[in-house]
Amino acid sequence: MFFRIVALIFVVDAVNVHSGNAAIGDFQDEGFKFLASEDECSSAEGGKECASCALSALQLHGKQQSSSVVSQLHHAGASPNLPLHTQGRYIVGKDGKRVKLACVNWSGANEGKGVPGGLHARKPEDIARTLKKMGFNCVRLPWSVEMVETNSRVWSENLLGANRELKGKTTLEILDAVIGALARVGLMVILDNHSSDSIWCCKITDGNGMWYNDKWPESKWIDAHEKLARRYRRQPWVVGTELRNELRTSNNGIPVWGSGSAVDWHAAATRLGNIVLKYNPHLLIIVGGLDFNKDLSGVASLPVRLNVPNRVVYAAHDYIDFHVPQTTNYKQLFDSLHSRWGYILAANIAPVWISEFGTFADGHHMVSKHPWWGDFMRYMARYDVDWSVWRADGTEMGGRKPVGKPTNFGVLALDWKSPAEQGELLYALQTIQKPHLGPGVYDHCKRHHADSWKPSWSIFRSSAAACGRCLYSKTCRNNLTFKSWCASSSMSRACGFTCCRAGFK
Question: Which residues are CB-contacts of 403 (< 8 A; sequence separation ≥ 6)?
């Protein structure tokens, strides 16, 4: 995903206002009221707002309170009641109560030699315990058709140095070890067919934009899914399978949603979904959108219907380059997301899982000049969307950069143990881990707290619009930790609701 974001450094300040077609009133909960005037910051003001915010509001707090990284870790909630199924826009457990997916991607099996990252540094059980402690409740494991179909033996010290007992094992046996470790600590697993070839994904020119290519035809794609469905059908913590990652224009064709032709992704997903459910009828079948998982507009007229009901979850992705330069404020972001996939939630059609989104580990590098990160996180919090951040990995696996090089984009640091960049990205994610909407969920924050930030405080927004934007900006928080910022007397009053939703009240 990194290659797309790098290019934005040259266009991030441009303005080309996008006119969305969503009806704002169609998608609200009682805890928020959309006010367009809150969000009409110009791009020129955007560069100054954090500094003025810090002067006008954060100086009221005084000195930063000390707080260790470990002391701020908190869990997402109780263990899920498996197996899962869907109920309208929510994923629920066997007891009918909501299970929010608050996941992290653990990549590596999709590229190079087909080995999940970090096994050079730590045991899979240790990595799994760390992710659990950080509050995640599930892991998305990308894999390639090539990895499953070739199932090669791996001897590399660079990949398995901390797990010598895995040397000489096949890629699927190594995957078994990782999934077993995740299951033992109570982390749900969602398998993701990331690509056909074992490569770093994704480009239009990489030959992997369809669910098949010349080397790996559709029959091999189906066969690989069948092998995994059979292999893990008795492992209850494997709760879902994402049929394909980021469909896009390719030299093999342009995918469409509903045509009956060889490039009809809706038809292919329906075929494969029904095949997988024959092996394991309890799996969630996750169907991504077109155009790098941006576009699920076809669901409105042609949803995926499978032979086993209440199993379809739609997957979307979101990154800053999906919105630059045309999206410059929250209303425009809302319109864009609503037209692409937000309407599915608004109409209570099915769950939408944001199976990839992310930013640099410091949480503001490069995107600080653009409001996307803060506004997208506000959207995720406001509508309590299921998600999986890209990615856990502290080091690369050779697909994009040499093995062992820092990702600069992961939740974990180089040691695969500590939070990267003093936990800035992790803490942002922890604010959206716990559910506040859905069956069996009590929303304490909406009933007992409110935001009262005033537009005169120079951020040019008020209430939740201002609090959400500032919470996810390290500069606006005056370099305070999330917890310290929310604990200050001024922010505790002005942003009580936002801080409560973030888990700090």
Answer: 112, 120, 158, 159, 395, 396, 397
pLDDT digits (tens, 9 = 90+) for 36-50: 333 333 333 333 333
* Cβ atoms of 1 and 356 closer than 8 Å: yes
Backbone dihedral angles phi then psi of residue 343, each to the nearest 5 degrees = -60, -25
Place of tokens 């410091």: 362
User: What is the C-alpha to C-alpha distance for residues 186 and 386, in angstroms, rounded to an integer?
Assistant: 18
> From CA 417, how far away is CA 115, in angstroms rounded?
18
| pLDDT for the residue numbered 78 | 65
Distance CA 201, CA 209 (A): 9
Maximum distance among all alpha carbons in the chain?
64
Three-state SS at 231: helix
pLDDT value at residue 9: 33
Of 402, 406, 400, 361, nearest to 203 (Cα)?
400
In the structure encoding, which two tokens stand for residue 172, read together?
Answer: 């699927």
pTM over 0.90: no
DSSP-derived secondary structure for 337-367? HIIIIIHHHHTT-S-EEEEEE---TTSSTTG
In one letter, which amino acid is 230? R
CA distance 244 to 227: 15
Q: What angle do CA 72, 77, 82 make, to 5 degrees?
A: 150
Instruction: Determine contact, residues 373/319, Cβ cutoff 8 Å.
Output: no
The closest alpha carbon to 328, from 369, 371, 364, belongs to 371
- Average pLDDT for 446-453: 88
Residue 173, both tokens: 């046996």
Convert the pLDDT of each residue in 257-267 to its tens digit: 999 999 999 99
